[in-house]
Each structure stands twice: as structure tokens, then as C-alpha cells.
Write a structure and sequence with these properties.
21% of the residues lie in helices and 38% in strands. The chain has 307 residues and is of the alpha+beta class. It has one domain: Beta Barrel (Porin), CATH 2.40.160.130.
Length: 307
């Protein structure tokens, strides 16, 4: 039943024109999301659905442009405070290229680019026991010395395809009584944009729901998921009577989980719906199921029944 609802929503959404282009995601642990929440609480963002993370860089740029426009319309005496203004300027600087592509500033569009290195992070932890920091993509630290090096980069091709990678080198002097050194792909994915719909395949973190400690189903406390995701990165208005639901977003996720669990390698399916009937009211619904796995094979018909 759920998969039928998703297909119905995608079918009616496909013909809807959208000011959209492919772009990589803003990581779930980014400083950007608290800033967007502050702008929304200040009345500077009305159309954004910001409780389903990650958002794309293009969507964050659109929300930044919306905040800039609403701030310019404010009457004397209703200006925002200095901190909010400073944070908005920081967003404008960070997403200047995307704002330009959307025609909200310079109006110089760049359809294809390659950024081999976007960001580099070096970490070091000295601990007296094994430890895991919450909301940190499931990274574990061991006794004594722990060091890490992360590099991220992304590319975009013709407004349609985007790529992202974030390898990590880790050293743990004593993790589970063993010295550990290794390189892994922390996050990495490819995205294809078709109209209002975006297809993503690869490894990334998700966060479904409001609150830094309150999301029950999806957070970046776990390791990033290897997944296939279908979504509309920019909220749309559905046709007919459904337009009264306000801005609408849907995300469908299918992932294969790890071996190290009671039933190895089961599948995880998730569906997330968001609507915003009022500028100050955002509603969300999530549905998740874990099925299959080693020794629990399902036929195609049984899989459809689960979905």
C-alpha cells in the first residue's frame, strides 16, 4: 500500500515544472541547519521543509534567497537582530555559486564544474577507554591515540548529474584490543535529476524529524547508509485539491544493512512525507521496515507486500 501511495505521488509530481538542478547534499552535521531553523523562527523562511535532512545545496541556496527577499521587505522597526543578519550573510557567502545559478544574485550560471577538494578535516582524540560520540556517523574511538583525516569533494555535470565523495583515513592505537589502521569511504554518492525528481545511489547519512536529540527513526548517530533514494529535493505544490496541503516533499529509501547484527544483511525501507499547510506549521510522517536478511529470503511478491 505504501509503495502505491509513493508511485501515485511521484506520477502526479513529475509533470510539475520546478526551478531545480542537481546538487550534492549538505551534510547532516553541518552548521547550516541550525541557521535555517533560526531564520524560520524569525519568519524569514516560509516555504522550507527543514525537518527532513539532508537538504541539497541548491535547496539551501533557494531558502537563503527567500530569507534575503523577506528581510528586504521588512518595515522599519521590524528588522532582524545582528546575529541573524550575520548568519544570513554567512549563508550567502557559502552558497554564492548556487545563488548565482538560481539567478538570485550575479546571474552567472555554471553548469559543469569539478572540485577535487572541498574540505579537509584532521582529528585527534586521546582517551582512556573505547568511546563513541553521538551524532557522529557511527565513528568509534579506542583507548589511547586516535587520529583521522577526511577529505571531501564534489562535481556537477550539465545541471543533471552530481557526484560527492568523502574518504576517511583512521588510526586507532587500541580499538577492541587491536591496533587499527585503514581507509574507508565515509560518504559517497551519485545523483541524477529529472524534473522535480532526484535519484541518488551511494552512501550518506539522513535525519528525519525535528530536534537534535528527538528523532526516533533516522539520525546520523548510525553509520551512513548504503542506499538508493528517490525524492523531490525542492518542495512542490501538488495539483488539484492537494495544493491545500502546501509545500510537499517525499523521500523513498532502500538500503542493505551490515553483516554484524543478529540477522545479517537485512534490507531497510523508509518513506518520509512532509507538508507545510501554513508558513508556521510543518508536518511529517515516517514509515520504516526492516525485512529479509540471511536465512530469511523473500519472494518478489512478499517484498512488495512488505512495502
Amino acid at each position: 500500500m505504501v509503495i502505491r501511495i509513493l508511485l501515485f505521488l511521484l506520477i502526479i509530481a513529475l509533470p510539475i515544472p520546478a526551478l531545480s538542478e542537481t546538487s550534492v547534499n549538505v551534510n547532516a552535521d553541518s552548521w547550516v541547519y541550525p541557521v535555517l531553523e533560526r531564520l524560520a523562527s524569525s519568519g524569514l523562511i516560509e516555504s522550507g521543509l527543514i525537518n527532513t535532512i539532508p537538504l541539497t545545496r541548491t535547496e539551501v541556496a533557494r531558502l537563503t534567497g527567500e530569507a534575503m527577499g523577506l528581510m528586504a521587505e521588512r518595515k522599519p522597526g521590524y528588522e532582524v537582530d545582528g546575529l541573524t543578519l550575520s548568519l544570513l550573510k554567512r549563508l550567502k557567502k557559502e552558497f554564492r555559486d548556487e545563488l548565482s545559478n538560481l539567478g538570485m544574485i550575479d546571474n552567472v550560471k555554471v553548469k559543469t564544474f569539478i572540485k577535487p577538494i572541498d574540505e579537509m578535516k584532521i582529528g585527534y582524540h586521546l582517551l582512556d577507554e573505547n568511546y563513541t560520540i553521538y551524532n557522529n556517523d557511527g565513528i568509534r574511538y579506542g583507548n589511547n591515540h586516535n587520529a583521522s583525516l577526511e577529505i571531501s569533494g564534489h562535481s556537477q555535470f550539465f545541471d543533471t548529474i552530481s557526484l560527492y565523495y568523502q574518504p576517511i583515513f583512521e588510526y586507532n592505537q587500541n580499538l577492541d584490543n587491536e591496533e587499527n589502521t585503514g581507509v574507508d569511504l565515509k560518504k559517497g554518492y551519485a545523483k541524477l535529476n529529472l524534473g522535480s525528481i532526484e535519484f541518488e545511489i551511494g552512501r550518506d547519512s539522513m535525519w528525519w524529524g525535528p530536534g537534535y536529540h528527538g528523532s526516533l527513526l533516522m539520525t546520523n548517530n548510525a553509520e551512513p547508509f548504503d542506499m538508493v533514494k528517490i525524492s523531490n529535493p525542492r518542495p512542490i505544490l501538488l495539483p488539484w485539491i492537494f495544493r491545500y496541503l502546501g509545500p510537499f516533499k517525499v523521500a523513498f529509501v532502500l538500503s542493505k544493512l551490515e553483516k554484524d547484527r543478529p540477522i545479517p544483511e537485512p534490507y531497510l525501507y523508509g518513506l518520509r512525507l512532509n507538508i507545510k499547510p501554513l508558513p508556521t506549521l510543518e508536518l511529517g510522517m515516517s514509515h520504516i521496515a526492516i525485512f529479509g536478511g540471511e536465512g530469511r529470503g523473500l519472494s518478489f511478491t512478499e517484498t512488495l507486500e512488505v512495502l
